[in-house]
Specification:
Layout (H helix, E strand, L loop, with lengths): L2 H13 L13 H5 L4 H14 L5 E10 L8 H7 L4 E10 L2 E3 L17
Antiparallel strand pairs: 1-2, 2-3
Helix pairs in contact: 1-3
Length: 117
């Protein structure tokens, strides 16, 4: 698998819906259940890159400030609790120093980049 083929796979996984797999510890289920979370989708891609000797692919775990701007459904809770944000863990993939977040279909931008801790 070359880098272009890997990017094709990334696009295929990105198109899969967000959803928890039946076994959270088994990222390979992304392939069979046709869905995944930030953790499972990105871990699956890292595994595929390693198995196919695709260089320059890193799995990244980060903490970010989950706030009303990047997670609008949380705004009422944050206001009620008088909080600016809640620390949250998130996974994404880095390919040759470019970040990709394929958690949700139709988006590959790491929208939380400004909120990384």
């Amino acid at each position: 698998m070359d880098k272009n083929e890997f990017l094709d796979l990334l696009n295929e996984v990105n198109a899969l819906p967000y959803g928890r797999n039946t076994d959270r510890a088994n990222f390979r289920l992304v392939e069979f259940e046709k869905m995944g979370t930030c953790s499972t989708k990105h871990a699956f891609l890292k595994f595929m890159a390693k198995e196919n000797r695709v260089e320059g692919v890193d799995l990244v775990l980060c903490l970010f400030k989950m706030n009303a701007r990047n997670t609008p459904p949380l705004s009422h809770f944050l206001k009620e609790k008088k909080l600016d944000y809640i620390p949250e863990a998130h996974c994404f993939i880095r390919i040759d120093d470019k970040n990709y977040d394929i958690t949700f279909p139709n988006s590959q931008d790491l929208k939380i980049e400004k909120d990384l801790i």
